Queue: 4 jobs
Job 1
Amino acid sequence: MPAEVEGRLLSPPVLGWILYDFANTIFSFVVVTRYFGDWIVNERGQPDIYVGLMSAAVSVALVVALPAIGARADRRARHKPILIAFTLLSVLATALLGVVEPVLLALIVGGVATFGFNAADSQYHPLLGVVAPERRRGRVSGTAVAVGYLGTLTALFSLGAIVEDGEAQKVFLPAAALFGLFALPCFFLVRERRTPPPPDGSRGGPFHQLVAALRRARRAPHGRLLLARFLYVDAIATVIQFLTVYARRTGDFDGDKIDVLLAVSTVASIAAAIGAGLLAERIGAKRVILGTLVLTVSALVLAAGTGASAALWVAGPMVGAALGSLSSVDRVLMLRLVPEDRRGEDFGLYAMVGKLSSGFGP
């Protein structure tokens, strides 16, 4: 690790890596969460199953491809070229969404954009081990997650201001521009050391890579983390998916109250991401994860057991804090558990587990 990276928290490589989190949350909010489905279903009048089928097809492709993509990065001992290639693919596809007209073509292009985003993200996490020494990975990861939430707020207010009802397609070109712009610092400032590739690098087709990676994970310490991650991401994804529905039906929240609840929960996520990262450096990432899960269960019991609308003002921010905390800390623990020459493949599994789990719960 270069001396300047050791000496400064916000060295150029760290800053570039953090800004990528800001960039990719802009894409995630615009395409995955807010505008793409609304555009296809509500503005183009298509059945919502079309978007569901597209998402399912992308998920299947990612499950098969992510470990193979990671193994290729390991064979070359470099993650950044793959991150750059798939980021540019996603940026280009997102821009095309702003001009494409046929619905089928829009679904295909949206699927390509989403695939590229997830493939790039799977090779973003291992770069934490490149830009930060182990003793500072918690705070760097937590800061990146917090900045990522700021990316969501930036997209919400800046892009939302230029999009009127019935004109969701107008958001994709500026979203692509912002995604690409804030990804550039990572492309140029993060530098990987040239190291020889492992002599026994895995080879074979994508399915072979997937099976081999799962077999290795079953016998390795990080396999237990991946299993736990599947379970807790599943639970949190379900809560997030139905939080607003529960607030409206059970808590009798109107739209304004729901917006305030989500805003407060987002602020809690930002604070928890930074705090959990710092705490992980003191007591260890595993203990932070366990403590966070206890808080999450407490929040769910509080909301479900009381049924009172006031409980949502506690449960919502607690779940938001859990999401911020786990997002910042579990990748730090993953880095400690996996060998350096397998980071690409194992973080491919890490991303795959998150993708699968997010779909199972809801």
Note: DSSP finds 15 helices and no strands in the chain.
Job 2
Amino acid sequence: MDRDLCVGCGVCLFQCGRDVFSFDPEAEKAVVARPQQCVDCFICEEYCPEQAIRVKVGKPK
């Protein structure tokens, strides 16, 4: 996740069915809180309006 591009809209939080993301209230942005739960479905990447998310298949997230 590119935190500079993230605007804190929360789309990733609602689209991710694996609960990978959480919201950082201090930064007012999403964070990858549970990368081990990611199944490389690309839904977060597809729905992010700011293109702040890039899923890296087969690599530690």
Note: The chain has a mean pLDDT of 94.
Job 3
Amino acid sequence: MFVKPAKGRTVPDPARGDVLPVKGRNVEASAYWFRRKAAGEIEVIQQKGVKDDRKL
């Protein structure tokens, strides 16, 4: 999933050992990133042309 920090936030990226760049980056979906989203620290960006068409 593609995420970027909320305005004025600095968010650590534990997988890379640095901070999430202002422009954002692709990260592996995990509980860590879902907690950051729930806390309002990041925005999850839906990129154009990306959709999940898998059928259950």
Note: The chain has one domain: 2-45.
Job 4
Amino acid sequence: MKNIKELSTEIFESAMEYLPRLLDGLYRASVHFKNNECLEGYAILHDANEGLMWFNEVVQGLPVLLPQEEDTNNITTNWQRYINALNSMLPLIEKRDASALSKTLEDEIIPFIKIFYEKISNLKQRTEYLQ
């Protein structure tokens, strides 16, 4: 059984590797929707779905994974907005509203994932410095 430090290190390393690819995919989907290339955008969203679910689980585990002194206000204050944006995606897909899909990805979903990525990137740099 791994201790919490080993588990958090493993999760954050996975996030550092995976999140740039997820962000790139979501950005590409947004561009496809903006260019009215909906099939390509939908295909990317389909592929990104599992990654988004994994990301949500990681964010929900932050209180356990991060050191106690770590400030997560930026993440927790934006969490509900991000969840609302995710929940709005299916109705937008059903309406085939490519413009709104692109806007939701660019304005709500991608920025939140970037906030999280920057947080763990900064944390990783600080912990490497301390070792």
Note: The two ends are 23 Å apart (CA to CA).
